[in-house]
Amino acid sequence: MLLMLAALAVGFVALSACSDDDTDDGTENSSGDGNGNGNGGGAQTSDADLTVKVGEFITYEVPDGYDAPLTNMTGMVDYRKVGNTLYLNGLQEGKAKLEIGKDFTLHKELSIEVLPNPELEGKTQKITLTTTEAAVGKPIGLEIKIAGDDAWIDLNNNGVKDEGEAEAAKTAELEERLNLPAKTFSIYGRVYSLVVRYTKLSALKVENGYALTRLHCSSDALQEFRVADLDCPNLRELSLGLNESRTLDLTRFPNLTELSISNGNSIGLVDPGNVESIILPSKYLVKLKVVEQPLRELDLSGYPCLSWLSLIDTHLKSLDVSPCSKARNLNVFLRDCSMLASVNLANGNNTNTDVEIYDCKDLKCIKVDKGFDASKWTIPTAVTIKNDGTSCP
After folding, report:
1. Taking a C-beta distance cutoff of 8 angstroms, is the pair 221, 178 a contact?
2. Radius of gyration of the chain from Cα atoms?
3. pLDDT tens figures, 45-101
């Protein structure tokens, strides 16, 4: 698929993770309410095929066999493709053209119009980060992606855009490290992607975060984290290192498609976290990763789109992935799940499922689709494969 963009606005054309209907002719299947539940944003006020207000989103599924853009052509739009779903973020107000190609030949051209959103007028997105005392005066790894030219970093947290603070935002956009003169600092403006690395970040807050769609924080000191402090309804990707939270309710992020929860340290130098249960967001979730958390329950019954699941060192006793029936390609990775005794992968789509299981000592049985041969999966030889239609004991 080719993508041509004319003068665009800070709204999003973001797309659902899977669709109830599978079109195959390249026609759009969008119409929506702008709240992540539907397809297509605000009311039609122009001749555009797809219309959306700033801060809303529309959904678009790319049919099988059609091409998608592989490079960022404008430098102002962040887009990616997951399965058959194309995601566009950071569009500027105005009009755009989306070209759908097959065999590198133009098949269909869709027009998109991003309209102003009165509800967002006068509101400025603000991301406030607080570090530990030990981090003051030391470099912080900060990577941001900006829509427009209004972003700046309040390094001394005085609420005033001082000399050099607009340049600091451009430096962070280049993924370079910044020295922190204060314990608390804020990022203002239309940042749609934020990645924080190499620092002891203790608190995080987002206000009026309509532009933020991607948030990754690998800090192992994030102790004052509260989901209620994240006002970012269009969030699509969330990755957090947590040590203190017990129950994580993510239903305030109805458009979340990728979720990663870990203890904040990939090499295991800190104690495991304490997330025992996760209340997942909307049906759009496609990717879930949980690392070194005493997770005891995981209900996937409301998430048919899930296509990538990684569980490392959890306390789950059983895992049922059978409700994920619409996944075109399901990847399951399990390691060090010492209490896991049974797994149900019979979702009617095991031919498109890849499984890797290591060091799950109590796992004795895996149920798969009837007649399916799982011999090519990476699983312990002692595990019984139930492919006769019966369940594990």
Report:
1. no
2. 22
3. 578 887 777 766 666 777 777 765 533 333 345 566 666 777 666 566 777 777 777
